């Protein structure tokens, strides 16, 4: 038993099944878990170090359900390209990267996530070299203290990716088995999850690979992550190769839609496909900023939610976003629903559900994270209110968090009960050193890619 930590917060937005808001509220944390909580101020009987957060709102650490951390080194390259040309550029980046680039990019992206209160990050990794780049990414991200879900996906086909980014099915699945084996401890503790999957079925993953990855995931009891119907060009590729109208029925025919599957994007899905996603228990990672950046369209999120699909939020990689900012992404998700044809408007409440508990549900981790409840791991973001000009005059806490809160308002972050951000600074990390190294590597990488300015 370690000494407890008691947090007194001005407000706690629990995101529990009753969606309770405690104002004020308190939490007692011990051995990484929330062991007691309630409304009002903490009782004298609660033992441990007291942390005064009466000027802050406590909420579950946000879940970024879809990103590619390697892109933090190539943030503003490849802007303004149509989807297919953008993808060709991204697929070629691996040719110029080494193991250390992957480690540093992951550390940088994880640092940006934690500073903004995103405590769990799903990295959908492609451009593989066996397990080396997965190991580098795990080391970089987890070294900073984030809870990581690594989707080690595979590519085996298509005209966009260079030969060295492709691998056969046996190699890809063996790599996942190796990673599962070598990270049993972290997986057992809940700090690491591994997923598989074909990267972008129809564009860079064949039907055979996609089906084999899903089968393998079922056998191993792990999830899968795939890019699904992101752009109309993906629909056209699937139609011309298979005759299927729509990516979802093709994937279903392959047996690739199952509980534990995260379909990233699902921008171009019909009403029938939405019903099918719901029936198969597939979760969707909605990436509104990325979809706008690439001109992909606006996903039918209200329709997906109304059909019972678990929709989580992802920033996507920095190459189709700019940042890894979950707040900007959350606000965009709610606002962009208002200009999507006949869709109903998403509410701040729905936005917060997507950013927290739905991310946990998509990962099959809702028993551990995604809400503040007794028995769950203590992944907590404390957002300061009432200090900055934009944060004064708060009347509705959910609206405030969605429309007004910024990453810089996050002052304290806990992951697994450990304080990883204290007063806006990462604990135990040489941030200037990390930034300097990332800066140097980003410059050198752009030069090797021949796209530096
Ligand atoms: Zn993506």
* CATH 2nd-level architecture of the largest domain: Alpha-Beta Barrel
Q: Report the sheet-strand fraction.
A: 15-25%
Structural class: alpha/beta
Q: Give me the oligomer status.
A: single chain
Q: Strand tally, please?
A: 17
What's the CATH superfamily of the largest domain, by name? Metal-dependent hydrolases
Low-pLDDT segments: none
Largest sheet: 9 strands, mixed
Would you write up a description of this structure?
This protein is of the alpha/beta class and 453 residues long. The protein folds into two domains: 5-59 and 372-422, Roll (Urease, subunit C, domain 1); 62-362, Alpha-Beta Barrel (TIM Barrel), CATH 3.20.20.140. It is built from 16 helices and 17 strands. The strands form two sheets. Strands 1, 2, 3, 4, 5, 14, 15, 16 and 17 form a nine-stranded mixed β-sheet that branches. The protein has an eight-stranded parallel β-sheet with strand order 6-7-8-9-10-11-12-13. The longest helix has 19 residues, at 431-449. The chain is globular, with a radius of gyration of 21 Å. The termini are far apart. The model has no long low-confidence stretch (mean pLDDT 96). Zinc ion is lined by residues 66, 68, 124, 227, 264, 316-317.
């Amino acid at each position: 038993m370690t000494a407890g930590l008691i947090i007194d917060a001005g407000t706690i937005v629990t995101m529990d099944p009753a969606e309770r808001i405690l104002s004020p509220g308190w939490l007692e944390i011990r051995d990484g878990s929330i062991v007691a909580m309630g409304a009002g101020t903490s009782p004298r009987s609660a033992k441990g170090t007291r942390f005064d957060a009466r000027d802050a709102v406590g909420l579950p650490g946000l879940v970024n359900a879809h990103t590619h951390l390697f892109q933090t080194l190539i943030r503003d390259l490849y802007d303004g390209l149509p989807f297919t040309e953008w993808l060709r550029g991204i697929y070629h980046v691996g040719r110029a990267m080494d193991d250390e680039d992957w480690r540093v990019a992951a550390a940088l992206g994880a640092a940006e996530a934690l500073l903004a209160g995103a405590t769990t990050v799903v990295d959908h990794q492609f451009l593989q070299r066996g397990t080396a780049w997965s190991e580098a990414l795990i080391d970089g991200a987890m070294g900073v203290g984030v809870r990581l879900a690594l989707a080690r996906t595979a590519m085996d086909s298509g005209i966009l990716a260079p030969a060295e980014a492709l691998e056969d099915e046996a190699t890809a699945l063996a790599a996942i088995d190796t990673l599962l084996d070598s990270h049993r401890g972290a997986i057992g503790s809940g700090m690491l999850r591994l997923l598989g999957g074909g990267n972008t079925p129809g564009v860079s993953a064949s039907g055979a690979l996609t089906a084999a990855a899903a089968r393998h995931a079922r056998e191993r009891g792990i999830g899968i992550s795939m890019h699904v119907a992101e752009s109309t060009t993906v629909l056209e590729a699937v139609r011309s190769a298979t005759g299927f109208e729509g990516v979802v029925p093709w994937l279903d025919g392959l047996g690739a839609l199952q509980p534990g599957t995260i379909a990233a994007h699902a921008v171009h899905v019909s009403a029938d496909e939405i019903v099918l996603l719901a029936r198969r228990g597939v979760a969707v990672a909605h990436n509104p900023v990325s979809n706008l950046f690439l001109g992909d369209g606006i996903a039918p999120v209200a329709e997906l939610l109304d059909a019972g699909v678990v929709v989580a939020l992802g920033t996507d990689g920095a190459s189709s976003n700019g940042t890894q900012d979950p707040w900007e992404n959350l606000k965009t998700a709610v606002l962009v629903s208002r200009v999507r044809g006949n869709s109903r408007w998403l509410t701040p409440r729905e936005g917060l559900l997507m950013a927290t508990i739905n991310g946990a549900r998509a990962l099959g981790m809702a028993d551990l994270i995604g809400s503040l409840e007794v028995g769950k791991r203590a992944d907590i973001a404390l957002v300061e209110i009432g200090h900055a000009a934009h944060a004064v005059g708060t009347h509705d806490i959910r609206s405030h968090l969605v429309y007004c809160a910024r990453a810089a308002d996050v002052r304290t972050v806990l992951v697994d009960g450990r304080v990883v951000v204290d007063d806006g600074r990462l604990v135990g990390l040489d941030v200037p050193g990390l930034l300097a190294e990332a800066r140097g590597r980003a410059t050198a990488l752009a030069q090797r890619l021949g796209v530096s300015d």
